[in-house]
Structure formats: C-alpha cells, structure tokens
Design goal:
Blueprint (H helix, E strand, L loop, with lengths): L2 E6 L2 E5 L7 H12 L4 E7 L4 E6 L6 H13 L11 E2 L2 E2 L12 H24 L11 H9 L1 H12 L6 H14 L3 H32 L6 E6 L2 E6 L8 E5 L7 E12 L1 H4 L5 E3 L4 E2 L4 E13 L5 H15 L6 H24 L2 H12 L2 H20 L2 E3 L2 H7 L4 E4 L6 E12 L2 H12 L5 H12 L9 E5 L3 E6 L2 E6 L1 H6 L8 H9 L3 E7 L2 E12 L3 H10 L4 E5 L4 H11 L3 E3 L4 H15 L2 E5 L5 H6 L2 E5 L5 H6 L2 E3 L5 H36 L5 H19 L7
Parallel strand pairs: 15-22, 15-24, 22-23, 24-25, 25-26
Antiparallel strand pairs: 1-2, 2-4, 3-4, 5-6, 7-8, 7-9, 9-13, 10-11, 10-12, 10-13, 14-26, 16-21, 17-18, 18-19, 19-20, 20-21
Length: 714
C-alpha cells in the first residue's frame, strides 16, 4: 500500500512497497510520472522503497499524485519507452547512474569471500607450488564469473538501455576475456578492485547522509508550552500548530512561529549565516534551530516537526545530493576508446594474417584495462595524497578534475571571505582616545563579540579600560554602564534615543559607515555623544591575492552570496571588485542563485562554511567548505574541505587539478603508445603471447613513475 511519509507544498515523499529492489519499476515510475503535467521531478530509491516527487502545488495535490502513481504501477512496463536520451554523454531521463541495490552486508560478505578465495589460490600456487586450474569451467573460473554478475548487469544496462560506452563495458569485456583465456585470476583482480571501490564510495556517501540528518536535526527533546497561564513541559514531537511555546536564554527554538510576547536577541547563524545576534520582538517571525542568547519570548507555533524551515532545508539538501547528475570519469572515455581500438586491432590482425596466435597476442596486449584505469587513477591518487598533505581534503577524483575547469566561483561572506572575529575599522569623534577609553571601559565585562573588538582595539592603542561594577544590557539596543559618577551609553541609534542623546552631529557619519557595510556603534558620556565606531569582520589573509590568481587562471565570474544585509554584502563586493553580489539570501535562495549562475556561466564552484551554505554547496557542481571554524554539516555535504581555511588553497586546488589532468593525459598516451607498439609487433609475428604480457608491465611502471611526480607537487 502506498503511504505518504512527508509532505510540504511542492514536495512529496511516499513509500511504495512494490519498489523494493525493483529497478525496472523504478525506471518506469520515474519516466511515466515525470511526464505528468505539473510534476517537475520524480526520484525513486529502490533500496528503501522511497519515491520523492517535486511538483507545482498550484496544479496538483497529494491525492492526485497518488492516483497517478497507482495507475502507473497498474500498467505493464513498456521497455521501449525507457530508452535514455543522451546528450554530451549524460543520461537525461535517469539523471543518475545505475546503482547496485544489493544489501551492504551481502556486498561486504561477497567481497570478503572473493578476497579469501584469491588468497587461497595465491598461497597454493606460490607457497605450496601447486598449480590451480583457471579455465572457464574450473572452480576458479566459475567463481570469478559468479562474482562478475553485478558488473555484467551494469554493462548490459549501459550498452542496450542507455546506449553509451563506459568503463563498465570495458571491465566486463576484459573480465570475460580473461576467464575464456584461462586467466581467471585476472578476472578476480578486476572484480575485487571494482567491488572495493563501490563499497568505499557507498560507505562515504551514506556516512555523509547520516551526518547531515544528525547535524540538521533539531536536537531538542522537550519544550515549555503556555497553557492557561501555566507552563507545561511537552515533548517536541507532540507540539502542534497554534501551541504557545516559551523559550528563554540559552534555549533553542523548536518550532517556526511568530513572537506574541517578550523580546530577545537570537543567534540565527544556522538560518541566515549572520554571526551577530539579531534583536527580535513581538510580531517577528522566528525559526526552529535558532537559539536565544538573551531574553525570553513566547512563540505561537505556525510550523512544527518536518514542516519547519530547518527540516525542509535538511530534506532539500538530501534531495540535492540525489539529484546531482552523474559525470563520466576520464577513465570511462579512455576505456571506450581503447575498447574500440582493441577490438578493431584484433579483428584486423586475424583477417590480414589469418594467424590465431598473432590475433591472440594482440588481444592479450589490449585486453587488460590497466592502461586506462591506471592512467587516470594513479594520477588522481597521487594528487589526492598531495592535497591531503596540504590540508585539502578532496572526496573524489571527479571533484579534483572539475574544480580546475569551472568558470564561475561563488563565495559566502562571513566565515569564508571574512573571519568570525570582528574588528574596529573606523573611529569618528573629536577625541578618539577619550571615546575609546569610555567605550572600552563600559564594554569591558560584556561577552558580546563587538564588545571584545572595542576592548581589543583600545588595548592595542595602549588605552587600558577602567573596571566598573554596574552595567545593564538592553536587548537590541546596547549597554548602559555606570563608571564612578559617569553614565556611559554604548549601542545603536535606538539606544541613544532611549537615553535622550542627540546624534545630530554624527548622524551623517554613522549613515556613511552603514552604507559602507560597517556596524555603527554610538558612544555617549553623561548624555553627550562622543562619536561613533565602525566595526567589520576581518578579511581572511590572502583574499586579494587569491582572487587575483583565480582570475588569472581563467575564472570569468566571481560572485558573493551572503545572508548578511544587502548593503553590507555590496560594500565588501565593491571592495574586492567582485562581478556580482547577492545579499540577504536564505539557504534556498543561495541554491537558487547557484542554479541561475550555472545557467548563465556554466559549472559553478561554491565556497562556504556554515549550515546555511549546505544547500548551495550541494547544488553547486563543486562545493568547497572552509574547515576551520566552519560547520560540520557544510564539511560533510561539500565535495572538498579546506581543513586549515587557507584562502590560498583555492588557487592551489585549480593548479593541482590542471596538473593532474596533464599527467593523466601523458599516462594515457604512454599506455596507448605501448599498446600500439605491441599491436604492431604482435601482428608482425615478432612478439609472442608470453612477451605480450610484458607490455602491461612496461607501461604500468612508466605510468606509476610519471604519476609519482604529483606526490612532490608544491
């Protein structure tokens, strides 16, 4: 029975029991449901019998989609309607690679058994000196053939359904050829490498997904609900729309809603990316995942559970990971070329020489996939090792390959281009030392980041603040301190208005600071304005140099996408001479900007560090997380993590990517060159079948030596 597991306007997740390990039905549902007017995308996961549907809620509803789905399942599958449309080597209708849905435990067990048998054979042959039969009907040949079934199935699907040539067909061809030629151990090698790689890839992907769900989880078990003048403790899972939820200092908000009583300073970094607390009062909208730094508020719940903004963002991140279109690895293209070349060479040798031995020699030279697999794989492995040594964590060779060719790079602001630490940029007043003395004295015991910046700046100039015993922090306004017989006010314009301080003299100066992207902090002593302080976040070291290197390396468009106020983001973009700026953007807005930039400029690299960047990182062709001080969820969802947050590593990444591609090309031409030489010698009868095997050793050693140069990359 079809069950609706999660529903928000425009997105529906259903459980369809008939989907369990049924890839043909999944393909059929995706194809037919995707053709329904109003449905934008349908993605099936046969492993957990799940179907995610994105639709236009103004045209369809959940009941209509469910009825369409039931009708589709009831119709017989028409294989002729499932043929993939290919463009640029990518499958449009699938938008994903075929996946082996064998349970993970079974795949691990099969890998262990295959490895164990291979170990037994090697011990028997090399230690006990007892030969093992490797012909097709021997136990070794039959076991190798059984272990190759998943690979053969993938090769069949890509050949006759998707109609494209990849490494799967090449490996399958080599495997079958090895068994038929009595080289079953070669088949074992192919199977073990492929199985091990798939398991490792699946482990990393599943680990990342679990981490995303865990980190974006609300992590609040109980809440206090206001009922008839009393507060009752209720499990968060039992909250309903319309409940009045009370949240105090240090507590996390468990629902989306509107403040109906009280005021507070909220940390909304997980929602907007802003590092400074935001003042919220009656009538303001708040989101689950934010927490109260100071104050107490009562919120009328409007969205709870999976309908909250944080939960919807988690679902969108997960969906974006699923929807990433597969990119064919460089080895696939090289393998397809070599497969065609090897087949033609073998047939031509047989026809021209009429010698089975010579044709067999040519086939042996061309049968092993090492030349193409190692050409890219060894270069990528060496480059990944070199990157890791420099605190650049790359989650796959394809990400290293693409980061060097993307023409568009997007940056988040806070925590990426700037640090989390604010600094005093400008001090405006008649006597700046006096202004800083009273401001630092008032803020000396205040834990706020802006207060620390003022105190630190004063001490840098040799101004030691005076201690005081009485101070009052006014939410959303600033601080009032009594130092000796003096009254000091430090805060925003509202704070000065409350204290009846005239700002006429510094009004224009404060406005200029705000327009330039700085936070304006007014200071008053005994009712008289002393001046205004402009505070900003520190730019990371090497920002200007890195941006210049990126432009010199071929990046045609650099954009800033930030959750900060538009004028703040625009000021930084102007300072850095960026090509475009998008300020005041929420997480889904950032992802939308990434999609728009991709449509205009091509593949996009997104660089960010926070939870609010996770969706944009997942949406981008390459997501790069600044690791130091960055959120774990951003690091998990990103393709590349810069563990030490060094901006210079961005330019180094592109340089390493280009060098890796050059080495891979060199390896490929070396491998193909030796193969062509082997073909010529074999066809001429100069090279025996036994000597044909040495061809693989020759180009393998050459490839390894060439790739090792990347280990020493600066």
């Amino acid at each position: 029975m079809i069950q609706i597991r999660h529903q928000i306007p425009g997105r529906l997740r259903l459980r369809v029991p008939a989907l369990v390990r049924n890839r043909p039905l999944a393909d059929w549902i995706e194809h037919e449901l995707g053709a329904v007017n109003g449905i934008e995308q349908a993605v099936c996961n046969p492993g957990c019998a799940s179907l995610v549907v994105c639709y236009r809620h103004t045209q369809l509803d959940a009941a209509g989609i469910r009825a369409e789905l039931e009708a589709i399942i009831a119709r017989p599958i028409d294989p002729s309607r499932l043929t993939c449309e290919l463009a640029d080597g990518r499958c449009r209708s699938c938008q994903r690679s075929a996946q082996d849905q064998t349970p993970t435990l079974g795949r691990i067990l099969s890998l262990v058994l295959l490895a164990g048998y291979l170990g037994y054979v090697l011990i028997r042959e090399h230690l006990l000196k007892r030969p093992v039969a490797q012909n097709p009907l021997s136990p070794t040949g039959l076991i190798a053939l059984a272990g190759a079934i998943p690979l053969l199935r993938d090769a069949w699907h890509e050949t006759f359904v998707e109609r494209r040539f990849t490494l799967h067909q090449f490996l399958a061809f080599s495997l079958v050829l090895g068994i038929l030629m009595g080289e079953a151990l070669t088949a074992f090698e192919i199977i073990l490498v492929l199985r091990g790689g798939e398991l490792l890839e699946g482990f990393v992907a599943n680990r990342s997904r679990r981490a995303i769900r865990r980190m974006l989880a609300l992590s609040v078990k109980d809440a206090w609900v206001w009922v008839e003048g009393q507060e009752l403790q209720v499990a968060v899972a039992e909250l309903r729309e319309g409940d009045r939820v009370v949240v105090r200092t240090g507590e996390k908000i468990p629902i989306d809603g509107v403040i109906e009583h009280g005021e507070a300073e909220l940390n909304e970094a997980s929602i907007s990316g802003r590092s400074e607390p935001v003042f919220r009062q009656i009538g303001a909208e708040v989101f689950a995942g934010s927490y109260v730094e100071r104050g107490a508020i009562r919120i009328r719940a409007e969205r709870v559970g999976e309908a909250t903004y944080l939960a919807r963002m988690a679902a969108l991140v997960d969906a974006s990971l699923d929807q990433k279109a597969p990119v064919q690895q460089r080895a696939d293209e090289l393998a397809a070329r070599l497969l065609r070349l090897g087949t033609l060479s073998t047939l031509a040798t047989l026809v021209l020489t009429r010698s089975v031995e010579r044709a067999f020699t040519v086939m042996l030279v061309m049968s092993c996939p090492c030349s193409t697999v190692l050409a890219a794989a060894t270069a990528v492995s060496a480059a990944l090792h070199s990157a890791t040594r420099r605190q650049m964590l790359i989650k796959g060779g394809i990400h290293l390959e693409r980061v060097g060719t993307a023409p568009c790079v997007c940056f988040d602001k806070t925590g990426t281009l700037t640090t989390e630490t604010p600094e005093v940029a400008v001090v405006i007043g008649e006597d700046e030392d006096t202004l800083l003395y009273w401001a630092a004295s008032a803020e000396h015991h205040n834990p706020h980041a802006l207060a620390h910046a003022i105190v630190r700046h004063a001490q840098t100039l040799g101004i030691e603040p005076e201690t005081h015993g009485i101070s009052e922090h006014l939410l959303g306004h600033g601080l009032e301190a009594h130092i000796g017989e003096h009254r000091v006010l430090v805060g925003n314009a509202r704070m000065m208005a409350t204290g009846k301080v005239s700002l006429r003299r510094y009004k224009d100066a404060a406005q200029r600071l705000i327009e330039s992207g700085l936070t304006a902090v007014h200071v008053a002593l005994d009712g008289k304005a002393l001046g205004v302080i402009g505070i900003r976040h520190q730019l990371r070291p090497e920002v200007h140099e890195t941006l210049a290197r990126l432009r010199a390396d071929g990046v045609g468009h650099i954009a800033l996408i930030s959750g900060d106020e538009p004028q703040v983001a625009a000021a930084l973009a102007d300072e850095l001479e960026l090509d475009s700026c998008y300020g005041g953007r929420l997480p889904e807005d950032k992802a939308e900007v990434v999609r728009a930039l991709r449509a205009e400029h091509g593949p996009v690299v997104m660089v960010g560090d926070g939870v609010n960047d996770a969706l944009a990182l997942a949406e981008a062709d390459i997501g790069i997380a600044m690791g130091s001080g960055g959120s774990e969820v951003a690091i998990e969802v990103a393709d590349i993590a810069l563990a030490d947050s060094a901006m210079g590593n961005l330019a180094e990444l592109r340089a390493l990517s280009r060098q890796t591609l050059r080495v891979a090309d060199q390896n490929y031409y070396l491998a193909v060159g030796t193969d062509i030489a082997g073909i010529a010698l074999g066809a001429a009868g100069i090279l025996s079948p036994a000597m044909g095997g040495l061809i693989h050793v020759t180009h393998t050693l050459g490839i390894l030596a060439n790739s090792s140069r990347l280990l020493r990359a600066p």
